[in-house]
Specification:
single chain, alpha+beta, Outer membrane efflux proteins (OEP), six-stranded antiparallel beta sheet
Length: about 450
C-alpha cells in the first residue's frame, strides 16, 4: 500500500522518465533534417548612360535534406531551381555534398558520447529511485515496529496501573483494620499517580506513532489520520544468520544503489575524458561536392539534367585555436574528475563494508539482549511476587512493593523494546546490504545503459 500511495515516492518516480527524455534529445542530433525555401524578387537596374533600365523578376525554389552520422560524416542533398524573365535563363541544380571529419569529431566513440551519457543519467536516476524506495520500505517497517512497541507499552502501563491501584486498595484495607500505619498509603498513592502519568505519556506516544505510520502508508479514502490501525501479521524473531558476514559484504558491493551510482558516475567520467581528449585535436574536415545543372527557357524543361553541365568540388578545411586553452582545461578537468571518481568508489566500498559489519554486530548484540531481558523479566516477576507475599505477612512495606512493581514495569518495557529493536536492526541490515526490496519481493525496473 505504501509504495502505491506514498506521495513522495510518486514524485520520485518521475525522475527516470524525465531523464529518459534526455536520451531522445541527444539522439536527435542524428535525425534527418528537411528544408524548403521559396523566394520571389524583382530588380530594376540602369544598364547604360542614356538612362536605359532593365527590369528582372526572379522566382527561386529550393528543397534539401541533410543528416549527420555517428561516424562524423555529414551528407546533404539539395535541389535548387530559379526562374527569371530572361529567355533561356531558367536553371535547375541537383547537388550532393559529403563532409567527413578527419580529426576532431571523427568516429562513433566521440560522437555517441552524449547519447551514452544520457543513458547513464537515466540509469543513475533508476538507482536513485531504487535507493529511495528501499529507504521508504525501511521507514514503513520501522514505523510499524515503533507503533507496535508503543501499543505494547500502553498495555504494559495499563497493567501496571491496575496492579498499583489494587495494591493501593489493599493498603487502605489493611490500614482500615489497623494492620498498617497510614504513612504506608502515601507510597501506594504516589506509585499509582506515577502510573497514571506514565499512561498519559504512553497513549500520547501511541497516537504520534500511529500518525507517522498513517502518513507513510497514505491509504486511500477520506480522513486517513482519523482511522485506527491494527497490526495482524507479526514475524518471529530471526534465528542466527548462517551466512558469513563476508558474503553479506560481497552482496552489498553488488546491490547497494549508491555504490552502483558511483560506478556509473565513473563510467560517465570516462566518456567525458573521451570527449574532451578529442577536443584537443584540430578541426580538419574533408569535403566533396557534386552538382548537375540544367538550363532551359522554361522551368519545366530546365529540370532535364541529362546535359553535359556539372560541377565538382573537393578540399580540406582546417581550424585550430592557437593555444587551445579551453579544450586543454576541459580535458584536464575530465581526467581529474575521473581519477577522483576512482578514489571515491574505493572509499565508498570501504564505508559500505563498515556499514554491513556494524549492522551485523548490532543484530548479534540485540539477539543476546532479547535473551537477557527475557531472563530479567522472569526474575523481576518472581521478585514482585515475593515482595507482595512479604508485604501481606508484614515483612515488607508498600514502598518496597511499589519499587518491585516499578522494576517489573521496566523489565517488561525493556523486553518488548529488545524484541522490536532486534526486528528493526534486521531491516536496517538488509537496507545497508541493498537487499531489502529483493527480500520483500519488490522489483524495480532498472534502465539499461547499453
Amino acid at each position: 500500500m505504501s509504495l502505491e500511495q506514498n506521495r513522495a515516492l510518486k514524485v520520485q518516480r518521475f525522475h527516470p522518465m524525465i531523464s529518459r527524455t534526455a536520451e531522445e534529445q541527444a539522439a536527435a542530433v542524428f535525425d534527418l533534417n528537411l528544408s524548403a525555401d521559396l523566394k520571389a524578387g524583382q530588380s530594376r537596374a540602369q544598364v547604360s548612360a542614356d538612362g536605359s533600365f532593365i527590369n528582372n523578376n526572379t522566382i527561386s525554389q529550393s528543397v534539401g535534406a541533410n543528416q549527420v552520422l555517428a561516424t562524423g560524416t555529414t551528407i546533404a542533398v539539395n535541389l535548387d531551381a530559379e526562374h527569371t524573365a530572361k529567355p533561356e535563363s531558367d536553371t535547375t541544380r541537383l547537388g550532393l555534398s559529403v563532409t567527413q571529419a578527419l580529426l576532431r569529431g571523427r568516429g562513433t566513440d566521440v560522437n555517441l558520447v552524449a547519447i551514452r551519457q544520457a543513458r547513464l543519467d537515466t540509469a543513475l536516476s533508476g538507482y536513485e529511485l531504487h535507493g529511495y524506495t528501499e529507504a521508504l520500505v525501511a521507514q514503513v517497517e520501522v514505523a510499524c515496529w515503533d507503533y507496535q512497541l508503543t501499543a505494547k507499552r500502553v498495555e504494559i502501563v495499563e497493567r501496571s496501573l491496575k496492579l498499583a491501584e489494587e495494591q493501593m486498595a489493599e493498603v487502605r484495607e489493611r490500614i482500615a483494620v489497623g494492620r498498617l500505619a497510614e504513612i504506608e498509603l502515601a507510597a501506594a498513592e504516589a506509585e499509582a499517580a506515577v502510573r497514571r502519568e506514565a499512561l498519559i505519556n504512553a497513549r500520547s506516544a501511541l497516537s504520534k506513532a500511529r500518525l507517522q505510520l498513517q502518513r507513510l502508508l497514505n491509504s486511500p479514502g477520506e480522513n486517513i489520520f482519523g482511522r485506527e490501525l491494527k497490526i495482524t501479521d507479526l514475524p518471529a524473531l530471526q534465528v542466527a544468520d548462517p551466512d558469513s558476514v563476508e558474503s553479506h559484504v560481497t552482496l552489498a558491493g553488488r546491490l547497494r544503489p549508491d555504490l552502483n551510482q558511483a560506478r556509473l558516475q565513473l563510467e560517465r567520467g570516462e566518456l567525458e575524458v573521451v570527449k574532451t581528449s578529442n577536443g584537443l585535436l584540430p578541426k580538419l574536415d574533408l569535403f566533396v561536392g557534386l552538382g548537375k545543372t540544367g538550363y532551359a527557357a522554361s522551368f519545366g524543361r530546365s529540370t532535364d539534367l541529362s546535359g553535359d553541365g556539372y560541377d565538382v568540388q573537393a578540399g580540406l578545411t582546417l581550424r585550430f585555436p592557437w593555444e587551445n586553452r579551453s579544450a586543454r582545461a576541459a580535458e584536464r578537468r575530465a581526467v581529474l574528475s575521473r581519477d577522483q571518481a576512482v578514489e571515491s568508489i574505493a572509499n565508498f566500498s570501504q564505508l559500505v563494508e563498515v556499514d554491513v559489519r556494524g549492522a551485523r554486530i548490532e543484530i548479534d548484540r540485540l539477539r543476546e539482549q532479547v535473551a537477557a531481558t527475557a531472563v530479567t523479566l522472569r526474575l523481576q516477576t518472581e521478585k514482585l511476587r515475593a515482595e507482595t507475599e512479604k508485604f501481606r505477612v508484614g515483612k515488607s512495606t508498600a514502598f518496597m512493593v511499589a519499587q518491585a512493581q516499578r522494576d517489573l514495569l521496566q523489565a517488561e518495557t525493556d523486553s518488548v523494546s529488545a524484541v522490536v529493536e532486534s526486528l528493526k536492526a534486521v531491516v536496517e541490515f538488509y537496507r545497508l546490504e541493498g537487499s531489502l526490496l529483493e527480500r520483500r519481493g519488490i522489483s524495480i525496473d532498472q534502465p539499461s545503459v547499453n
